[in-house]
């Protein structure tokens, strides 16, 4: 009966994906049973190795700096969307004053914390930020942010705590699978200046931000962005060290005296442990005893060194999602079309990271906590906050603008799009990382000041008219 069924419905042959097949061609390959299992088994080791290379390898240092500079830049800034302009201006003024005191450690402002958190996410795979309400804060809004090292949240802490709740990799989940708290050590393990005994604190999830790039559903912890390229980096480092030693040996001017009969002697020069050092001057002729001959070392050169290193750097840049030119600084053979195509794809990836990761996991929770504390402290009058909280919490985040590859052509294209009704001025200004209302207010103030001083600006117009000069 089974054979007949197979014949009728075409199941007589064995069909499968080649990727799931077997045989000699698949010998030695590896598979991953689960992302969480792989992360918990090796994320800490990979993060420590990535941190070492980020501080000791020039290519990795350039790559990390480039990623941080493009994702965060001078800061991803909020723009309130409250319908009342007065409320928007009050919120923006409060936020601007608060950003200078946002760091509990006092090392940076809010945008500096953004950069530090993103850098930690790239190097270590994740970063944690604790939201602290400090009544003794120097800011009028008593909110401060504390960056935590990934190792302060132990990856090996697993425990059932009853009622269906449990701790997995230092994160507490309720019976429904929601994150409700983090278990955090008071300082990083191995800190030479830390306390001998470290306490494990329970911090509610609402007070602790976990910044990482999710790769799969149900992912617990992050993995360093350098994971796909660490082994290649290690091999390239060893190759470069060997090539450097070889070049140093090749640069040594070394000669070997041949003495077939063993009768050579009386050579001039200083003898130190069997090594004869002879001074040489341009045009000098040095007589040798009969039967003596000198041969100089001539190590072979590696003609494929530069292409080999370049190919590996391209693979490393690709693994990090960066154009090769940003990692190596090598602009040889780059054309306008090629660099533009590469940057467009790179910027698309950066925008995805900005909005799907940094804004969603870091910026929005901070803004929401800031607005609520501003209302509670009385700095933001909002009698209708409870009934209309979404209006006060509404916000658009403006990432830093990307510099134009060809400013004139790009600006002309943007002007044409605005004139054709394909985009608004507000959208164009927001894409550059600015607040449209603030820009319009500055333009109006500039125009009013210029009119009052008799200044005229524009194509073909002098900066000052004749009457103003005569006055």
What would you note in describing this structure?
The protein is α+β, with helices and mostly antiparallel strands and 471 residues long. It is built from 14 helices and 14 strands. Mean pLDDT is 80; it is low at 462-471. Helices cover 44% and strands 14% of the residues. The termini are far apart. It is extended and about 110 Å long. Among the domains are: 35-212, no CATH class; 402-451, no CATH class. The longest helix has 41 residues, at 336-376. The protein has helices spanning 2-9, 35-56, 58-71, 85-99, 110-124, 230-251, 305-320, 324-328, 336-376, 389-393, 407-419, 425-431, 436-452, 466-470; strands spanning 77-80, 126-133, 143-148, 159-162, 165-168, 171-173, 179-185, 200-204, 208-212, 255-258, 270-272, 275-277, 293-296, 395-398. The strands form five sheets. It has a five-stranded antiparallel beta sheet with strand order 4-5-6-7-8, with no helix packed on it. It has a three-stranded antiparallel beta sheet with strand order 3-2-9.
């Amino acid at each position: 009966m089974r054979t007949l069924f197979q014949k009728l419905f075409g199941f007589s042959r064995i069909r499968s994906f080649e990727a799931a097949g077997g045989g000699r061609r698949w010998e030695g390959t590896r598979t991953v049973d689960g992302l969480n299992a792989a992360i918990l088994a090796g994320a800490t080791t990979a993060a420590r190795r990535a941190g070492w290379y980020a501080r000791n390898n020039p290519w990795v240092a350039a790559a990390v700096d480039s990623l941080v500079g493009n994702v965060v830049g001078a800061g991803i800034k909020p723009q309130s969307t409250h319908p009342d302009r007065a409320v928007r201006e009050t919120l923006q003024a409060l936020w601007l004053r608060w950003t200078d005191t946002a760091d509990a450690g006092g090392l940076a402002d809010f945008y500096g914390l953004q950069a530090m958190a993103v850098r930690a996410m790239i190097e270590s795979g994740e970063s944690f930020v604790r939201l602290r309400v400090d009544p003794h804060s120097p800011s009028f809004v008593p909110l401060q942010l504390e960056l935590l090292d990934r190792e302060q949240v132990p990856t090996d802490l697993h425990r059932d705590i009853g009622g269906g709740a449990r701790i997995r990799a230092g994160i507490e989940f309720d019976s429904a699978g929601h994150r409700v708290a983090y278990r955090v050590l008071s300082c990083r393990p191995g800190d030479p200046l830390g306390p001998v005994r470290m306490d494990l604190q329970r911090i509610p999830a609402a007070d602790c931000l976990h910044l990482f790039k999710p790769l799969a559903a149900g992912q617990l912890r992050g993995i360093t962005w350098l994971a796909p390229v660490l082994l290649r980096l290690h091999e390239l480092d060893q190759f470069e060290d060997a090539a450097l030693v070889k070049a140093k040996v090749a640069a040594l001017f070394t000669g070997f005296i041949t003495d077939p009969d063993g009768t050579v002697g009386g050579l001039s020069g200083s003898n130190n442990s069997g090594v004869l050092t002879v001074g040489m001057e341009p045009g000098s002729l040095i007589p040798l005893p009969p039967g003596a001959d000198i041969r100089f070392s001539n190590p072979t050169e590696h003609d494929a060194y530069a292409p080999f290193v370049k190919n590996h750097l391209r693979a490393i840049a690709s693994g990090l999602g960066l154009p090769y030119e940003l990692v190596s600084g090598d602009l040889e053979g780059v054309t306008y079309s090629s660099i533009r195509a590469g940057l467009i794809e790179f910027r698309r990836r950066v925008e995805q990271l900005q909005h799907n990761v940094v804004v969603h996991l870091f910026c929005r929770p901070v803004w929401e906590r800031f607005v609520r504390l501003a209302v509670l402290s009385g700095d933001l009058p909002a009698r209708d906050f409870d009934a209309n909280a979404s209006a006060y919490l509404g916000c658009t985040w403006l990432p830093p603008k990307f510099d134009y590859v060809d400013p004139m052509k790009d600006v002309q294209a943007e002007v044409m799009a605005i004139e054709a009704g394909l985009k608004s001025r507000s959208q164009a200004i927001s894409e550059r990382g600015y607040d449209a209302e603030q820009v319009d207010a500055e333009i109006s103030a500039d125009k009013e000041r210029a009119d009052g001083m008799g200044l005229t600006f524009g194509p073909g117009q002098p900066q000052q008219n004749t009457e103003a000069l005569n006055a």
